[in-house]
């Protein structure tokens, strides 16, 4: 026979009260334990998770531990302590380890400890440019816990030592090597219109600075030169026997250059004046240019220097205008403004050609073929509407069959007595050169102070 028991409502109420009472006592005890003003001891810890890397920095999460749950939220101060790592390295307790410089590390001022927490983390950020200098090696940093708030204390483990291998974080392709763009690690031959630009001051050799990898913040590089090794390179047969080192007064090179933010390249120019070229026409000039230091990243071990070898005899330019015979399609009867003034090497005189109707030419004829690679035109003293606007330069072997070498359209001369240079590529020398003018700026006459032809090596 089955017995049935009926639980009366009073009994249900008593059971609920007992359950609530037991629960309240437990929660009250727990709450009481945390709310008591009991100090806790904070100790330094190790890496607390994944190390994260981007194009600018590495972020390392680091843990601190508490001897008991925090009864109040508080902060513990943080300080870098490079001396600890240095002492450990010098004493032999840390071997094959490099000390990270303090300027490469960003450490927060304090770590926040939450109420009830038994541990907390903070993040150390290391600039990639500071870390990559130690690529392939182990590095270390140390920090101290200081000034715990709310009456808490620091344990005996007040200093944390973080050691890691850069190979675990960086790869070869992550390294931002800084190098010389043009000819880094080689002998750069400056001759025959290669590896230089012509200016009125001399030859400009564009060396340049390059950054490998993803660009980030701006940085500067410091340059240096070396002339002592030139004689050794000559002795080894690497440089010609007649090579001499450039003196400091024979070139211009800035001491520092800046690569802008999010850029991979910057200009770095070596300038050798024409006076140096002319004075050393029978010699070869050399200079070792190097990147001596960089504010960020790492100098390329093989491409941060270049041996610049200048051949004056093959970069000298000669104005051959005076050796040619001038002819024009029609001259000016006024001796003060006739065609002879076009090539008299005096910008204060001018050739004014009347009766311009959209077509005119000037010609220079040489006894021997000349390799012309540039020419100049100088505006005359007045009336800008008489300036040349559209033209072409042609070359010929016989004065009958003409080859167009250079064409210009829409040219302007912003000032009077302004000389503009026009370079063009050619591999052939001609005896005849003709400038065909097809338009000016609206006047019925054309005028110009000078037309010069420049022979290139």
TrEMBL record:
Residues in domain F5/8 type C?
A: 302-456
Q: Where is the signal peptide?
A: 1-25
Keyword Signal recorded = yes
For this UniProt record, the keywords arranged alphabetically read as follows:
Signal
What name does this protein carry? Discoidin domain-containing protein
PROSITE patterns per the record? FA58C_3, PROKAR_LIPOPROTEIN
Annotated InterPro entries: BT_3987-like_N (IPR013728), FA58C (IPR000421), Galactose-bd-like_sf (IPR008979)
């Amino acid at each position: 026979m089955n017995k049935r028991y009926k639980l009366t409502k009073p009994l249900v109420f008593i059971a609920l009260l007992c359950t609530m009472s037991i629960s309240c006592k437990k929660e009250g005890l727990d709450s009481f334990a945390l709310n008591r003003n009991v100090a806790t001891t904070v100790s330094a810890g190790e890496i607390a998770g994944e190390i994260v890397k981007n194009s600018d920095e590495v972020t390392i999460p680091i843990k601190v531990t508490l001897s008991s749950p925090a009864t109040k939220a508080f902060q513990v101060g943080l300080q870098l302590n490079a001396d600890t790592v240095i002492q450990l390295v010098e004493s032999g307790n840390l071997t094959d380890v490099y000390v990270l410089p303090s300027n490469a590390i960003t450490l927060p001022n304090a770590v926040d400890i939450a109420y009830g927490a038994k541990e907390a983390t903070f993040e150390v950020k290391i600039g990639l440019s500071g870390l990559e200098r130690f690529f392939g090696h182990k590095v270390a940093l140390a920090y101290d816990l200081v000034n715990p708030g709310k009456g808490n204390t620091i344990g005996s483990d007040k200093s944390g030592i973080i050691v890691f291998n850069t190979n675990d974080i960086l790869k070869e392709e992550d390294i931002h090597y800084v190098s010389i763009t043009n000819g880094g690690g080689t002998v750069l031959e400056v001759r025959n219109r290669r590896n230089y630009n012509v200016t009125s001051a001399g030859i400009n050799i564009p060396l340049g600075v390059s950054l490998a990898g993803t660009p980030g913040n701006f940085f500067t590089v410091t340059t240096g030169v070396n002339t002592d090794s030139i004689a050794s390179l000559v002795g080894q047969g690497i440089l010609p026997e007649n090579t001499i080192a450039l003196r400091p007064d024979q070139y211009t090179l800035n001491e520092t250059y800046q690569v802008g933010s999010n850029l991979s390249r910057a200009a770095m120019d070596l300038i050798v004046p024409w006076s140096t070229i002319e004075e050393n026409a029978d010699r070869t000039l050399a200079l070792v240019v190097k990147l001596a230091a960089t504010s960020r990243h790492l100098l390329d071990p093989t491409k941060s220097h270049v041996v610049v070898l200048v051949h004056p005899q093959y970069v000298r330019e000669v104005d051959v205008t005076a050796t040619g015979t001038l002819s024009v399609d029609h001259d000016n009867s006024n001796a003060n403004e006739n065609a002879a003034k076009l090539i008299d090497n005096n910008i204060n005189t001018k050739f004014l050609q009347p009766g311009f109707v959209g077509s005119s030419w000037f010609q220079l004829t040489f006894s021997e073929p000349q390799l012309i690679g540039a020419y100049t035109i100088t505006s005359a003293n007045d009336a800008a509407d008489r300036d040349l606007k559209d033209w072409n330069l042609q070359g010929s072997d016989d004065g009958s069959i003409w080859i167009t070498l250079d064409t210009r359209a829409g040219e302007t001369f912003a000032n009077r007595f302004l000389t503009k240079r026009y370079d063009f590529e050619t591999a052939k020398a001609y005896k005849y050169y003709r400038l065909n003018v097809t338009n000016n700026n609206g006047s019925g006459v054309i005028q110009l102070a000078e037309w010069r032809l420049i022979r290139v090596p």
